[in-house]
Amino acid sequence: MSSSGTGYGTAVTAWRAAAPDWDAYTRHAFVEGLRDGTLPRAAFLHYLAQDYVFLKHFSRAWALAIVKADTLPEMEAATATVHGLLHYEMGLHVKICAEAGIDAETLAATPEHPGNMAYTRYVLEAGYSGDFLDLLAALAPCVLGYGEIGARLAAEATSDTYGDWIGTYAGDDYQGICRDVGALIDGALTHRLGPDYATLPRFAMLSARFAQATTLEVGFWDMGLSPSSAPA
Amino acid sequence: MSSSGTGYGTAVTAWRAAAPDWDAYTRHAFVEGLRDGTLPRAAFLHYLAQDYVFLKHFSRAWALAIVKADTLPEMEAATATVHGLLHYEMGLHVKICAEAGIDAETLAATPEHPGNMAYTRYVLEAGYSGDFLDLLAALAPCVLGYGEIGARLAAEATSDTYGDWIGTYAGDDYQGICRDVGALIDGALTHRLGPDYATLPRFAMLSARFAQATTLEVGFWDMGLSPSSAPA
Amino acid sequence: MSSSGTGYGTAVTAWRAAAPDWDAYTRHAFVEGLRDGTLPRAAFLHYLAQDYVFLKHFSRAWALAIVKADTLPEMEAATATVHGLLHYEMGLHVKICAEAGIDAETLAATPEHPGNMAYTRYVLEAGYSGDFLDLLAALAPCVLGYGEIGARLAAEATSDTYGDWIGTYAGDDYQGICRDVGALIDGALTHRLGPDYATLPRFAMLSARFAQATTLEVGFWDMGLSPSSAPA
Amino acid sequence: MSSSGTGYGTAVTAWRAAAPDWDAYTRHAFVEGLRDGTLPRAAFLHYLAQDYVFLKHFSRAWALAIVKADTLPEMEAATATVHGLLHYEMGLHVKICAEAGIDAETLAATPEHPGNMAYTRYVLEAGYSGDFLDLLAALAPCVLGYGEIGARLAAEATSDTYGDWIGTYAGDDYQGICRDVGALIDGALTHRLGPDYATLPRFAMLSARFAQATTLEVGFWDMGLSPSSAPA
């Protein structure tokens, strides 16, 4: 069961336990506001618009994973994710925003918030300067943290105000993606570093990348709570 | 009409006319052997196996184009190509080889020929060290040259021995991809360099990249004609 | 005379004029505190430690410029900068910090502040995803802004508390580097885009990169003024 | 003693022993012609001109090692190598060629031979797509193979026709570089993979990269022996 955070593979479970900001991320006031419906609509829409910009660069980072993969199955797993992000998840944002009166042009023209930019550039640079593993470790907190949040909120929500959002990330499709990404990471580690990968300094370095990206997720929620901090 | 080489956009037409080896590539003895059916089967299968390895790295290069794109439509165009290469074109190779008694494991284990490696690494490095335009200029000769070859052979073939291969590249699907890639290149140039892009030194540099990749295609056909030159 | 901001070449002069935050950067309260000596020592040392971490990643970005250069003179200019950063400028930080009782190990172990990280990863990612010009445009505000600040403070300082720092950036060596980098940028633009480069959409894109890096410089000074915002 | 190939560190000694083409590279007919003075002058000058082009791209690859390094000492080691290549080794080529009547402009205008290009693009792409270790494994055969060749020829030469060349690579400066690079590789492996790095699949992957670059060195000597194969 993913809400325990142990359902997405061995490596992620270890990295998650070692990331100081994991709870600050997955139990952030923004998340609790989604759970009990108290999150102001303006904050949610501000978040969605920034997340739309985020997903563009996050898709670029997953595309870099295709380039950096070693095997065809690794390439195919990363390609499926790019496809899902560009054609499904970004479309969902367009649809929700449209229902709120924000049209696609406005959404596409959203100025990128500094905290948003800091996150995706960190991930992309980790991937360019490191290898496939560095990139996956930096990508993982977003993908799998949302899976954990979705699964928990589906069980604990006291309001259905944000039921659509919760349902997306708690749903079978998204949970399946999370398990696939967890398996991709475990497989990639074993393929390169052998079965005892968790004992190597390299694993601690990857854990630090995961922890850093987790911290940047906290900043993303902070930004979501402060619509007025957006650039003009 | 693409067999004249002028059907895939303005930039490619100019680059094609300036590439010294364009005819050596598109009218290579290997190509003429496909046209009149005299190409030995062993050469064709050797080529297919190398092309399978090629397509893996070529897909990685198209994935790099997603990373290096500036706009969502550019990203989507590159994503569609990666998807087509990994899920359709590579599958076609697997199917043809299977019919010839070469199973998927054997195909996947094909040792990469030096001329094959030289080509894809040139393209990838051009993309990494340059920008989106450098990458597209290096990717273009393969995509669009095959379109031109397919269209010509469909009109001029005197044998149907290699009719399936010819039909693939002469077909509406592939010709549509060629037109899309040509339009992507023209659009990317205008977006960055303005309408008079062809007058800039940058355009001549891109033309040199296109010409270099064209020369590497000649080497690929040469390799195809010499099955015994393959590494053990 | 560089304090007018027109002494470092044509392109930089245009980009500087178009960057909304240029004055916010070069006339920041931190800078004014260096000028009149009112900057608290703790803030200065906090800044120096973060700048030491910054220079490591900034050197990596200049090394990427060597990789992305087209000509030997471009490579040599970038190499000289890497050499100067690693062997001269970082050494200066070690020396000043040592005099303040911060030893080299402590300095090297400085935790990277989020605003610091955001800046260097933006520059590196611009370089990886773009080409040599994108990288230079993102590198320029730091190099040339410090030159402009140094030259102005040398003329306007009302205290010699921070005279060493001012003297470093106002000095002939550093001003020479600034002129060289300005000439490198003008030459690289002309080499690729021709003499009318400033009329092209590409130039506006590069100007946007310069403006973005300038904004990130403002955040760096903000961080310098808030020693307590540093991670533990 | 380096002529036994065991003087440049633990990892390189293992990779060298596992590279099928190591002797084909270090005892190539070109090398034996340097040893006994029978190498035709035209072949030597053809080689030098191609090597000049090679060193430009090889310097770019070492600069990429600065970008991909994790620690300051790793960055400094790579920077020293870039500096040495650009300012010392390339200058040596200019000098020898000048003595043979080939001026610097002619040298700089040397068309890049396909086998030359294949090698450097392989190395650069290995570095971009992999991490610091992948890059070092691809860089090592050139640096350390020349050290081994120089040391052996200094002991075994029967002619002083190519004594300058031999002396360069047998000399203390170059042998010191080889030991430094060997130590850099061993240190980088231990830093990332721990003391038992040689037991990991990753080490076998790096060994394969080393072997591939070794094979590309054989092609480089082949090219040197065939001046007429140069592009017009």
Automatic annotation (TrEMBL), chains A, B, C, D:
Keyword Hydrolase appears in the UniProt entry: yes
Organism domain of life: Bacteria
GO terms, biological process: thiamine biosynthetic process; thiamine diphosphate biosynthetic process
Pathway as given in its UniProt record: Cofactor biosynthesis; thiamine diphosphate biosynthesis
Thiaminase-2/PQQC domain ranges (all copies): 16-225
Gene Ontology CC terms: cytosol
Function according to Swiss-Prot or TrEMBL: Catalyzes an amino-pyrimidine hydrolysis reaction at the C5' of the pyrimidine moiety of thiamine compounds, a reaction that is part of a thiamine salvage pathway.
Listed name of the protein: Aminopyrimidine aminohydrolase
Lineage, top ranks: Bacteria, Pseudomonadati, Pseudomonadota, Alphaproteobacteria, Rhodobacterales
